[in-house]
What does this fold into?
Amino acid sequence: MLSKPIIRTSLILIACLVSLNGCASLGRGGNGQIQTGRASWYGRDFHGKLTSSGEPYDMYDLTAAHRTLPLGTKAKVTNLDNDRKCIVRVNDRGPFVGNRIMDLSYAAADKLGMIDAGIANVRIEVISTPKNDLNSGNYSLQFGAFGDRSNAERLRRELSARGYEPTIESVQAQGRTVYRVRMGSYHTLVAAESARIPFAVRGITCVVVNL
It folds into this structure.
């Protein structure tokens, strides 16, 4: 289903690591980062399902999924094909298909006029980021987030059987309890992304999240 950079080279390295098909264009903007590339959108099939932030996905909210921007980041997205714009809040991780750089909610895609096309060339400009950023803070690898603890326990057992030691954390999100299966603690996004790659090679899906 996303910050001030340490250095531009680090962000390019991250983009290359998370996309085997190529790197998106990265630059500097007023708040630290501008990124250009291709974006897609996700809708009804995911409506109500938990995002990486623990919030239920609401296809009618202006939200987006990004691979590395800290959850809670606000960004202006411009459709370079028609110059339409909207502001989104990053609350999920993804997309993990091809070289796309962002997955937009249905509402955001509608504002950008890309519903029918499905994919658009976009520019992402970071407006604001949460307290933690690339320079400091704590990050972890999240393997899943569930509304039912039994599902979290099942995933934990599966990972334990493969030699890993994840933990289950319970948090309140929008009036409901969410059970997150996580492992590891990293001081930089670069370190967390480097730790994620071996899992991807082994076919284990996980995303980097802010603690």
